[in-house]
Design goal:
Layout: H1 4-9, E1 19-23, E2 28-30, H2 31-47, E3 55-59, H3 64-76, E4 79-82, H4 89-99, E5 103-106, H5 111-120, E6 124-127, H6 135-140, E7 157-163, E8 171-176, H7 177-190, E9 198-201, H8 208-221, E10 224-227, H9 233-239, E11 245-248, H10 250-257, H11 264-267, E12 272-275, H12 282-292, E13 297-302, E14 306-310, E15 324-325, E16 330-334, E17 348-353, H13 365-371, E18 378-386, E19 392-397, E20 402-404, E21 407-409, H14 411-419, E22 424-434, E23 438-447, H15 455-465, E24 474-478, H16 491-497
Parallel strand pairs: 1-10, 3-4, 3-5, 5-6, 9-10, 9-11, 11-12, 12-13, 23-24
Antiparallel strand pairs: 1-2, 7-8, 13-14, 14-15, 16-17, 17-18, 18-19, 20-21, 22-23
The structure holds malonyl-coenzyme A (MLC) and adenosine monophosphate.
C-alpha cells in the first residue's frame, strides 16, 4: 500500500456518499465532501513548502475542518501534532520549539499572540476557527480536487502527541502509521464497529481517545459520528437517540447519571458504551447498569501505546478491571526494582509490547531508553495485577501523575511554577478525589521563613503560565512537607490528609 494510514482510513471512502459527520447545527458531511476538503488542504500544505516528515502543530477548536486537517497531513505525509486548546502561549512555545514544527495552525484570535513566537522559531502560521473559517480554509478554496497521496511506510511517523514528564518537561510521543492503524483495526473488530454505527463524539480531538480511538475506529468501519464541539449535557441527551455507540471519560458518565433525563428508555437502542482515560469507579458501573441495563465496556490505554486492554464485547465486562490484553498486545507485570516478571496475581508495574507501542520520545533518547526496553516492552508507569482469568486491574500509578476529567497533569510542572513565586520556599502538588473530575489539583506551599505568600498572586501567576485544567483548585500553606529518611516528599501522607477536601458531601 502506498500510504497505509491514509489509504485505509480515508482513501477507502473516496467518492462515498455515505454520511461521515453530523454536527449539532444539522450540517451533514458525506465522506466525499470531507475528503474533498482534506485534498484541498493537502495542496495548501504543499504550496506552503511542507514536505513529508515536517511537523504541523494545530491548536484549533473541534470541527469537521479540524479533522480534515488531520486527513490532509496523513495524505501529504506531514506529521500531525494536535494540541490542547487550553494551552497558554508559554506552553505552546515549548511544543513548537521542541517539535520543530514548520507550520502552526491556530484559531484566528490567537494569531497575533502566536505569530512572533512562530516567527522566531521559523514556523508559518495559518488560522482555522471552530466554524471552519480562517486562512487555511480560505487558501484551500479553489485548490485542485485531486492530490497524489504521498507514499509512506508503516514505520513512518504519523503523529506526535505530547505527554508531560515527571521532570516537568513534556515529551513528544512519536506514533507511526502502523501504531495508529493496527490499533484502530483491532478495536473496530473487537468492539464490532460497522458502517451502521453512529458514534456520539463529544471528546476533544487533540488526544488519543477522541482522535485515534473514536475517530480512527469510525473511519476503519466506515461508520459515522455525531460530532459535538465538546461535552454538553443537554446536547448529549438530545443526540443519544440518534446514536448507536458512545465513548467517554468517566466524568461523561457521572454527569449523565446525575441528570434525571438520562433514562433507560433514552438509551434502550444503544449498542455500546465505552469508558477509558481514567479509572471508573465500580460504583459508577453499577449505577449505570441499574439505570440503563447496559454494562459500560472499560478499556485501558495511553498516549504512548494507544489501547492496551479491553473488557470483552460478548463476555464478562468486569467493573473495576480494564479487561484483557487486546489481540497482538503482550502485557506483563514486573517488579519495579528488578524488572523481573512477577507471578500471577501479584501487584507490580504494567509493561506492554505490540504494534501499538510508539517509537520513542522525539529527540529524547535517554527518556526513551528509561521507559522503552530494548526488547520492545514499554514501562507504562501504571501499577496493577492480572487475575487467573487474565483480567487486568489497575491499582495505582508508579508515576507522579494526576488525572483530572481525563486530562493528565504532572505535578512537577506546577510545582516549578509555585516554587518560583515570592515567599515560597517549596511546594508539593497532589491529586485529591473530586466528585466530577475524579481527581483535582491541590497545591501545598511552605513559606520562606518570616514570609506570608500572597496566595491570590500565586494563583494568578500559575494562571498566566499554565492551562486552566492544571490550575490548583486550592492553595494551602503548611508548615513543612513530610519527608522520608531519604528526603523524598511523602505525597501519600499529604493525599491522605487532604482526601476529603473536594469529596462529595457525606463521603
Ligand atoms: C475543563 N476544566 C477542567 C477540565 N476540563 N479542569 C480540570 N480538569 C478537566 N478535565 C476547566 C474548565 O476550563 C472550567 O474552568 C472548569 O474547569 C469547569 O469546566 P466545565 O465546564 O465543568 O468543564 P467542561 O468544559 O465541561 O470539561 C470537562 C470535561 C473535559 C470532562 C468534559 O475536560 C473533557 O472533555 N475531558 C476529556 C479529556 C480526554 O479526552 N482525555 C483523553 C486523553 S487520552 P473555569 O475557568 O470555568 O472554572 C488518554 C489515553 C486513553 O488518556 O486511555 O484514552
Ligand atoms: P495519557 O498519558 O493521557 O495517555 O494517559 C494515560 C494514563 O491514563 C494511563 O497511563 C493510565 O494511568 C490512565 N488510564 C487510561 N485508561 C484508564 C482506565 N480505564 N483505568 C485507569 N486508568 C486509566
Amino acid at each position: 500500500m502506498a500510504n497505509p494510514l491514509y489509504d485505509s482510513l480515508f482513501g477507502a471512502h473516496a467518492g462515498s456518499s455515505a454520511t461521515f459527520l453530523k454536527t449539532v447545527d444539522g450540517d451533514e458531511w458525506t465522506y466525499a465532501r470531507f475528503l474533498a476538503l482534506a485534498v484541498r488542504m493537502a495542496h495548501v500544505l504543499v504550496d506552503r513548502g511542507l514536505v513529508p516528515g515536517d511537523r504541523l502543530a494545530a491548536q484549533v477548536e473541534k470541527s469537521p475542518e479540524a479533522l480534515a486537517l488531520y486527513a490532509a497531513c496523513a495524505q501529504a505525509g506531514v506529521i500531525f501534532l494536535p494540541l490542547n486548546t487550553a494551552y497558554t502561549v508559554d506552553e505552546l512555545t515549548y511544543f513548537i520549539e521542541n517539535s520543530g514544527a514548520r507550520m502552526v495552525v491556530c484559531s484566528p484570535p490567537a494569531r497575533d499572540k502566536l505569530t512572533p513566537v512562530a516567527k522566531r522559531l521559523g514556523a508559518m502560521v495559518e488560522t482555522l476557527d471552530g466554524d471552519g473559517s480562517g486562512s487555511l480554509t480560505g487558501a484551500a478554496k479553489g485548490q485542485a480536487e485531486t492530490f497524489a497521496t504521498v507514499t509512506r511506510a508503516p514505520d513512518d511517523l504519523a503523529a506526535f502527541l505530547y505527554t508531560s514528564g515527571t521532570t516537568g518537561r513534556s515529551k513528544g510521543a512519536m506514533l507511526t502509521q502502523e501504531n495508529l492503524l493496527t490499533n484502530a483495526r483491532v478495536l473496530a473488530d473487537y468492539w464490532r464497529f460497522t458502517d451502521r454505527d453512529v458514534l456520539l463524539h463529544a471528546l476533544p480531538i487533540f488526544h488519543t481517545h477522541g482522535l485515534f480511538v473514536a475517530t480512527n475506529i469510525t473511519l476503519v468501519a466506515g461508520g459515522s459520528m455525531i460530532f459535538l464541539p465538546k461535552f454538553d449535557l443537554d446536547a448529549m441527551l438530545a443526540c443519544l437517540p440518534g446514536a448507536t455507540t458512545m465513548m467517554g471519560v468517566p466524568t461523561f458518565y457521572t454527569r449523565l447519571l446525575d441528570d434525571d433525563r438520562f433514562t433507560a428508555d433514552l438509551v434502550a437502542h444503544m449498542r455500546l458504551f465505552v469508558s477509558g482515560s481514567a479509572p471508573m469507579l465500580a460504583e459508577t458501573h453499577e449505577r449505570f447498569e441499574a439505570r440503563t441495563g447496559h454494562r459500560i465496556l472499560e478499556r485501558y490505554g495511553m498516549t504512548e501505546t494507544n489501547m492496551n486492554t479491553s473488557n470483552p464485547y460478548d463476555g464478562d465486562r468486569r467493573a473495576g478491571t480494564v479487561g484483557l490484553p487486546l489481540p497482538g498486545v503482550e502485557l506483563k507485570i514486573t517488579d519495579p526494582e528488578t524488572g523481573e516478571t512477577l507471578p500471577g496475581g501479584e501487584i507490580g508495574q504494567i509493561e506492554v509490547r505490540g504494534p501499538n507501542v510508539f517509537k520513542g520520545y522525539w529527540q529524547m533518547p535517554e527518556k526513551t531508553a528509561a521507559e522503552l526496553r530494548d526488547d520492545g516492552f514499554f514501562i507504562t508507569g501504571d501499577l496493577g495485577h492480572i487475575d487467573e482469568d487474565g483480567y487486568v486491574t489497575i491499582v495505582g500509578r508508579n508515576k507522579d501523575l494526576i488525572i483530572s476529567g481525563g486530562y493528565n497533569i504532572y505535578p512537577k510542572e506546577i510545582e516549578l511554577v509555585l516554587d518560583d513565586q515570592p515567599g515560597v520556599l517549596e511546594s508539593a502538588v497532589i491529586g485529591v478525589p473530586h466528585a466530577d473530575f475524579g481527581e483535582t489539583v491541590l497545591g501545598l506551599i511552605v513559606a520562606e521563613p518570616g514570609a506570608t505568600p500572597d496566595l491570590d498572586a500565586i494563583a494568578a501567576a500559575a494562571a498566566a503560565r499554565l492551562a486552566r485544567f492544571k490550575h490548583p483548585r486550592k492553595l494551602i500553606v503548611i508548615d513543612a512537607l513530610p519527608r522520608n529518611t531519604m528526603g523524598k516528599v511523602q505525597k501519600n501522607i499529604l493525599r491522605e490528609a487532604y482526601a476529603g477536601l473536594f469529596a462529595p458531601a457525606g463521603d
